[in-house]
Amino acid sequence: MKKSLILASILSLSLSAAEVKIGVVLPLSGATAAYGQSALEGIKLANSMQSTLSNGNKVSLAIIDTKGDKLESSSGANRLISQDKVIGLIGEMVTANTLQVMRVAEDNKIPLIAPAATGDRLLDKKIYSSRVCFMDSFQGSSLAKYVFSKLNYKSAVIVVDQSTDYSLGLAKAFEKQY
Question: Which range marks the domain in which residue 142 is found?
Answer without folding.
Answer: 136-177
